Amino acid sequence: MGGNSYGQVVTPPLHLRVADELRGRISRGQLPVGAALPSEAQLCEEFAASRGTVRQALAALRNEGLIGGGQGKPPVVRQAAVAQPFETFLSFTRWARQMGREPGQRTVEIARRGAGPIAADALGIDEGTPVVEVLRLRLLDGIPTMLERSSFIEPVGRLLFDFDLDAGSIYEHLQERGVDLRAARHTIDAIAANEIDADLLTITAGAPLLRERRRAIDATGTRVEYGDDRYRPDLVTFTIDNVQAGRVSPHVLKETP
Amino acid sequence: MGGNSYGQVVTPPLHLRVADELRGRISRGQLPVGAALPSEAQLCEEFAASRGTVRQALAALRNEGLIGGGQGKPPVVRQAAVAQPFETFLSFTRWARQMGREPGQRTVEIARRGAGPIAADALGIDEGTPVVEVLRLRLLDGIPTMLERSSFIEPVGRLLFDFDLDAGSIYEHLQERGVDLRAARHTIDAIAANEIDADLLTITAGAPLLRERRRAIDATGTRVEYGDDRYRPDLVTFTIDNVQAGRVSPHVLKETP
DNA sequence: TCGAAGCACTTGTTCAGACAAGTTTCCGCG
DNA sequence: CGCGGAAACTTGTCTGAACAAGTGCTTCGA
Asked: Average pLDDT in the B44-62 region?
């Protein structure tokens, strides 16, 4: 458990630096869409790296869908793939913006305390291990829509204390600080609103809520966040499209009716 | 691919063969979830490959979210079972069987009557057009778990009258009779149990239920069924896995806690 | 002029070795 | 018996080299 170094300043491995530099050039428009990247040999020289290292960096970009290309041809910058459903599904802020709605939030509480039994189990840590808990009321066009309870493992949660939680997306902030969220498992069920839920969401206690519990994992497989989001079911639903034949995996959306 | 334009079959690159073999072991259950993979050194020996090649294969699996792990620790198989979600997601019977649970049902009502406003809208027909409505209580190991209200368009629903609804899967029966279900859209929300729901599901009125509304479409694009399934949220949840990089689309499961 | 062969350049695959960094195991000491 | 620490083992990073395979430009010949 002790190896995490979020936030510490150490020079990352070479292949990550190469990948970051190229990502930067692409996002800055220095390498416009459709342009060919420098050849592997050129990159080797520029970064004083071996070809294996450069290829490792390119593989990462290919993986993210940033570049394409084939054997014999230099890799080209691809059209910034459609806002990854991952991001959209994970981040309330991005989801709302993509729909043309105005996201908002009111932070009710942020605290560093020992993990409770549920969060500890979900995060795979011992009960009482320090975590950072955030309770935020999320708004859509000013209307209370969802109540978000998150528990972050300490090395990640620490990054939230120098962030204005009412300013925007936690995930965007964490990503900028080097936290590389990779996968998430969402469990959806229904639950009756308790007094606190009801008060904040301006509904009556006992009313049914649509609950999405979330376990987010970073690139190394470390469980980073456990979340419990409670939606007003009259304002938000989940939609799943599935198609039989064409091995088109199901597509999941959050929707407002 | 793996063949040239003349149809010749060429052996794919070694790293792909290694990855495929490992994928197979995972999907066959030979490497169960949570199990550690052989060490890189062992894999090198087994496949007579160098470490770089083995690592290339492992990177692919990691990318697909099949394995996780960190430095110093052997990679472990992650929860990401791959069954065809469509059938499983659509059919309560198949879903239950796949989990090793015993599905059951008690048909409360089957009737041919004019479509109500909601079903008519969902099916794209005029209100009052005849449809076949089925109300079934679905059981898991004998326990009332879900209440299923389905409206089938008349030409399809007619096939249900020569079928013992308590015998098994409606979808299997329809498929045998030539109804080719192709796609479905599921909308998930939460709703309070009404008196009837509560009575049949042996819960109290007003308790939160997990609702999945469904619109199934056949191969020609005709809307065939509108369904309203209400689950006891303490017995069934929906789970969605999503992975960022490997453009692995989200995977949807129904689960019993 | 036009087509094809050839060549230079590119990426894809694979190997062998070395060191760094994290984890687990196990032995000896208190 | 318990605990600390060394040792063995594992994965992560990086290098340098070689050959295979695909692409595109050039050049040569008909």
From this structure: 92
